Structures are given as C-alpha cells and as structure tokens.
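[Automated response] Your request has been received and processed.

Submitted sequence:
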Amino acid sequence: MADTPLRTVPDLTGMLIHAGHVLETQLTAALAEIGLTPRMQCVLGYALEEDRTQIQLAELAYLDKTTMVGTVDALEQAGFAERKPSATDRRARIVAVTPAGAKAAEEGQRVVDRVHGEALAALAASQRKPFADALAELVGGQLATPVEAQPVRRPRQRT
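Generated structure:
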C-alpha cells in the first residue's frame, strides 16, 4: 500500500464546499420559515435594484434558464413578482416586484443577515472582518471565473 501524499496546503476546496453546503442548508431552513428560498430572495433583491429581464437576473443569480423560470413562477404564485413586457425590447420580460414581494425581500434580507451573522459569530470579533475581506478578495480575483472543464457533478448528499 502506498503512502498518503503529504499535504502542503490546506484543503481549501473541501473546506469551502463543506462550509458553503452547511451555510446554504441553514439559510434555506431559515428562509423557509417566511416562505422564501435562497433563489427567490436573490432574484427579488436583484429585481428590486432596477428593471431587469429574466435573463439578466439569471446571470446575476448564477441560475440556468430553466431554474430561473421556475423561480419566477414561484415568485408569481406567491404574489411577490410579475412578468411585464420590457419597454425597450418587446420580446423580453421584466420581472417586476410587487409590494408584497418588496416586503418579503426586506424580511428575507433580515434573515440572510442573521444567518450570516451567526456564522461569522463563530469567529473571534477581530477575525470577522479580515475573514470576510479575504474571502471577497478571493471571489473577486483568483476565484472569480471558473475555468472551462468537464461538467462538475455535485456529490450526493449523505443521509
């Protein structure tokens, strides 16, 4: 049997995947209490910023077209958004947030901030800002753009 290779750098991939998965499940559970999903919250937030088409929102929220359609369908069914014709492109639809959707997005943002705050609270107060700044620098720089490769299959969830 061969020796295990010596690790010279921490397993960032494993740690980031695990932390992201756990944080996502915590956020999903917390938002479900107010009738939202993380995708719904994300789309509402971007749609409130300015008039955007479904395609523009999908790009900002990192959603494929099919998932985006389902998300907007769910927002419409909940009364949080509606599709309206674009004033500049008759083929495009703008996702307009309703007053109920704006209220839901505001409440959802409080939930997101609470969940993220609880995660950061696991760190010493002096570590929180440097950690968030370093992560933002990685995501905005070295880890901003995926490389072209074979499609990555997500691991099945352990039960």
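Summary generated for your ticket: The first strand starts at residue 81 and ends at 85. The longest helix spans residues 99-120.
If you did not submit this request, please reply to this message.
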